[in-house]
Amino acid sequence: QTTTMFTANENILLRQHKRRVIEFVESTIPEDALDLGTAVMAMQVSCRQPGCVPLETAITIVFPKPPRKIIKKKRNAALKSGNDKENEEEKEEEVPSYPKPLVPNLEESRIGGNFKTRILKPLAEVTKDDVLDALPPNFAGGRRTVESLCIKARDMVFAQIGQLVGTNDEELNDSEEGKRLVEGRRLVAEYLKVCLEEYVERGCVPPEWGEKDGWGSNGDAKKSEDMDVSEDVDADADATKQDGANSGGIKWGEGNILFKRPTEEDE
Length: 267
Fold this sequence. Notes:
By secondary structure, this protein is α+β, with helices and mostly antiparallel strands. Helices cover about 40% and strands about 15% of the residues. It starts with a strand and ends in an 8-residue tail after the last strand.
């Protein structure tokens, strides 16, 4: 990620948008935490990596460092030096922390750490709802939960499928064009379903951008593992044929999934 350069006028507008976003974030932080010196930083950054949005907003909440405490302990000095002193004071520094988090249940606010989040929009387009969606419920009004992230990821994937394959209006639903678009989206969804299973099995490590080899073959492997071929070879063959019929044109091979639309010969 890189910081985008702007002209003088653009910088003035950018500072205004930055101040607006910072105020949105500060409104979710308890007043006593702000009084102790909690600072909010917002920055617009660009990303040139594949799949990134061109401009996004990075937000960092910097909590104040807690005061350091020195604990005085007494120990037997004779064990260390062999002299006649019975006790000697020893100073030990305790890990600094506040008695309780400045933001409820947020450990970073107790030890003086940083909390980071980002919004996949440029600063000028960020709304208060976007800020609340990017913050967990620890902050006042925050709505970022595991469930909300899952729903957002789901909606983004479905939207991308529609943009790449195409969506059809209601009047096209029963037409050949509408059926073709539905079939195209279904084929993409079947492939992604297999890739997601492989993604989980590989420790949630994604493939390189555009990589095809070794991805999309998991479904065929699972079918062969789950079935006991020694029991009934004929039943296995019948199941394979049935899978091919139900797949609506998906041909399972030893490698990746091959997408093939039905032809007159298949019919």
